[in-house]
Design brief:
By secondary structure, the chain is an alpha/beta fold. 39% of the residues lie in helices and 18% in strands. It is built from 20 helices and 18 strands. Strands 2-1-3-4-5-6-7 form a seven-stranded mixed β-sheet, with helices on both faces. Helix 4 runs parallel beside helix 6, helix 10 crosses helix 11 and helix 15 packs parallel to helix 18. The longest helix has 18 residues. Bound molecules: iron/sulfur cluster (SF4). Iron/sulfur cluster binds next to loops.
Length: 509
């Protein structure tokens, strides 16, 4: 039987961050298809996004008004006990069975028509749902199960030790490794592969296996579901790795790789024509990961008159006004910048030194040319104080005219524990001064949890100050059912640009 692979992006029980087409599985599809593989992809998260706890029309219209916590059939996968009962003892909760059979019905083709099922995992919550559904498919159809995605690190070899229904795990970029695996290459020759041999779990060496040709193919994805009022945000990645080395960051620690700006523009042009879209979201760790690259890319956009608009992460640096004008002219609507902390000592612990003057100047310049600045803050980092909270509140007041939206997240030690490869994890431990830490086991992984009892109070103060200054607040994860809620900062920026800010278009003339 010829190999056929279906690669899935499965629902996250707490709703994913943004309703955008999944880039990772689209890149895999593009690469594998060009390599002659029979591959399909599917975004069950999007297809299941608006599912309610009831299908009875009258009740449905009522429960849809409730917050996600109450009206969320996927919530069962947040229940550690039920997840562990299914994964460890094969006792599925009735609701879990029902949800998984609904997911199966949504698949682009019957699962039985594939020899391999790949699952892309991005978060802890998605891991629980993905493992359960992978087990469900394995038991029903006996397919080969491969896990991949940004949540997979060498540490996930523990999953292979715990769960026999997983056949392979691919760490980092999956294109080359998956192609070799489907092509039947000896397992020990496939970089970034975790597998079993003779009852033992084997971990192949990591390599920067960046494929030359990473143009995404979104054609299987339910494109019509992603957009509303003509705003469909298509993600695109022009680089890997990061020039900084923040201590808490896992994705940034990959080797640096940057595409040729001409290739980027060629690919974006084809995506624009093929899917009739104009809005892009660069998912690179920063568009200015290389200053030279960002300039050449913008010049190419302008030269080719692509007429696209985009949002990107940005590492705040001391740049002249002409630099921000260039970004704007090339279609930049929004820059997303990590401030993280204003405490010098914590910045040092995070290996992230932020110069307040550089931040102020950059925000002033980019907002002056009409770019929507979105800022990220981290609160409750071990060691932060109320003085730091006051500094952030004062920063908001003094910079309220220079940024339009902000996100505040709680320092997440569990994410670091789950993802860090062992040696890096060990060295990271030394930098922590935790006030309250405990351990938890979920899906075969033991990790630490940290909780600052004042986080909610800090969060309320932060939100109140933003509200008082007329700035949008966003959670990292959207806790609302409406996927196109205007409060989502990506969409807010683009809606506002489309409806109000006519000057932006004129600037580009
Ligand atoms: S700037 Fe962002 S991507 Fe780069 S290392 Fe820091 S947290 Fe990671």
């Amino acid at each position: 039987m010829n190999t056929r692979i279906l690669i899935l992006y499965l629902p996250s029980p707490n709703q994913k961050m943004l309703p955008t087409p999944c880039l990772g599985i689209a890149v895999l599809k593009g690469y594998l298809k060009r390599a002659g593989r029979d591959v399909r992809i599917d975004d069950i998260e999007m297809k299941y996004w608006e599912k309610d706890i009831t299908t009875i029309p009258l009740l449905r219209s009522i429960v849809r008004k409730l917050p996600l916590w109450f009206n969320n059939p996927k919530k069962i996968f947040l229940n550690t006990r039920q997840v562990n009962r299914y994964l460890d003892f094969n006792i599925p909760h009735e609701r879990m069975k029902k949800v998984m059979s609904e997911w199966e019905k949504l698949l682009i083709e019957p699962a039985a028509s594939f020899t391999h099922i790949g699952v892309s995992v991005m978060t802890t919550e998605q891991l629980a749902a993905s493992l359960c559904f992978a087990k469900y498919l394995k038991e029903k159809y006996g397919v080969c199960i491969i896990l991949g995605g940004s949540f997979m690190t060498q540490r996930m070899s523990l999953l292979l030790e715990c769960y026999s229904f997983i056949d392979y795990i691919i760490v980092r970029e999956g294109e080359v490794a998956l192609d070799k695996l489907l092509g039947g290459e000896p397992l020990e020759n496939i970089e970034n592969l975790l597998y079993r041999k003779g009852g033992e779990v084997k971990v192949n060496p990591l390599a920067a296996a960046y494929a030359d040709n990473m143009e995404p193919d979104f054609s299987d994805l339910p494109f019509s579901l992603y957009g509303q009022k003509d705003v469909i945000m298509v993600p695109y990645e022009a680089s890997k790795g990061c020039k900084l080395n923040c201590s808490y960051c896992v994705p940034g620690k990959k080797p640096l790789y940057i595409k040729n700006p001409k290739t980027v523009v060629d690919e974006i042009e084809r995506i624009k024509e093929r899917y009739n879209v104009s809005y892009f979201s660069f998912s690179d760790n920063a568009i200015n990961i290389s200053r030279d690259f960002s300039i050449r890319l913008c010049e190419e956009f302008i030269k080719r008159k692509l007429d696209i608009y985009w949002t990107a992460y940005f590492i705040i640096e001391d740049e002249p006004m002409s630099y921000f004008r260039l970004l704007k002219k090339a279609g930049c609507i929004q820059l997303r910048c990590g401030i993280e902390t204003l405490n010098e000592k914590l910045g040092h612990a995070m290996n992230r030194r932020i110069d307040p003057d550089v931040v102020s100047n950059a925000l002033r310049k980019s907002s002056a040319v009409g770019i929507w600045n979105h800022l990220f803050f981290i609160m409750s980092y071990p060691g932060d104080t109320w003085r730091d909270v006051l500094k952030v509140l004062f920063f908001i007041i003094s910079h309220k005219n220079f940024f339009k939206s902000a996100t505040m997240s709680c320092f997440n030690i569990s994410g670091i524990d789950q993802l860090m490869e062992n040696h890096k994890y060990a060295s990271y431990q030394g930098t922590l001064i935790c006030r309250k830490v405990w351990k938890e086991k979920r899906c075969g992984l033991v990790y630490r949890k940290y909780y600052d009892i004042f986080f909610y109070l800090k969060s309320i103060l932060f939100k109140w100050m933003l509200w008082a200054c007329g700035i949008y607040f966003n959670n990292i994860f959207s806790a609302v059912k409406d996927p196109f809620n205007r409060r989502l900062y990506f969409y807010s920026a683009f809606y506002q640009w489309r409806t109000g800010d006519k000057h932006a278009a004129e600037d580009r003339m």
